[in-house]
Known about the structure:
Blueprint: H1 2-7, H2 9-31, H3 48-78, E1 80-81, H4 85-97, H5 100-110, H6 123-151, H7 155-163, H8 168-196, H9 200-205, H10 213-223, H11 227-251, E2 270-271, H12 277-303, H13 313-316, H14 331-361, H15 366-377, H16 384-394
Helix pairs in contact: 2-11, 2-16, 3-6, 3-8, 3-12, 4-6, 4-12, 5-6, 5-12, 6-8, 7-8, 8-11, 10-11, 11-16
Amino acid sequence: MVTRRLLWLGPLAFIGLFFAAPVGRLLGDAGQASELGAASALGLSVDLGGLVWFTILQAAVSAGLCLVFGLPIAYLLYRRRVVGQRLWRALLTLPFVLPTLVVAIGVRAITDGWGPDGWASNGCSALAGILIAHLLLNVSIVVRGVGAAWARLDMSQEESAEVAGAGRLRTFWAVILPQLRGAIAGSAALAFLYCATSFSVILVLGGGFVRTVETQISLAANDYLDLRTASTLAIVQTLITVAAFALSGRVGWGVAGAGPAGDSGEPHSRVADRRDLPALVLSLGPLVIVVVAILGSLAFKALSQPDGSIGPQNFANLQGFGARDLLDISVLDALANSLRNALVSTAVSLVVGTLVAWLLAHSRCRIAARVLEALFMLPLGTSTVVLGLGWLLFFAEPPLAL
Length: 402
């Protein structure tokens, strides 16, 4: 028992040094920040109320779109049997696992020309692109989370409702929805969390017309070097994301439990028929077409040459330093750095995460286990921009000048 308690020292020191201390430094700097209503000393004007309102609004609309498209697709791919079922699931999950910057660039490529003066000529076209990107990135959260729960429901309840004369909509509303309420609410909260912390999508597709708390933090810290304003905005962003994180864990299956993605639900499913055609035409079909269009557009642009020909020359140029030698390192060197960082991060996460999981599994105090579990899950619900700014401030001075 004593040895088990001592084993907690390592993970607690890890989370304290690399999460609690940087966030605590942000709190300290935010407490010293001046009023945000006026322009800062370096000329940065921050409309805090407008930023918070728009950040929450665009995240809520994006999460709503994920539900509108995701629920019919979850029904089609997890409650019915269709040709190419696993392929459709993989295609819908692909944007989620791709870097958000790649998806944002892909959306911009296929929507180039929107507006009278081209891409992002106004805030409406920029916002439309952002919502499309957020839908593609996060709809798989709803599909896999709700779909896995849907696949486990007893089919006999639906059959009994149909025998009693209830149509599909009434059966869904009266029989299925009450059983899926937790999974739906949890997946919606999680989609909201990811959309509220979106950075690359807003940066690439916003066109300067659209800004959120996340992008304003970067602007204050990097362009204006106003770390106090950035710190205050970071705390506001943390409050938003922590609230969404707590809600997702309370109302559904939580941030870490998107359900057994590999569960096909085939033992409890029937072959799709004509009545399932609206779900295919209005939900699954359009999203699959957009995903394929994005991948095709990226591949076409990667192979296109300045003279209009098609060839692999762009890939050969990755070993250089750009057309005008503006890069500090080659793209291949950057790729090597990314792979190295990913391997090191994975190794550290595996060691710390496995130890924490083992300690939580053998904990005798449920309250303490829940508190510790929430503590170690909290960084997942915290904005990466907030964490980066915290590291920038906390590890900028000796003895921990990393």
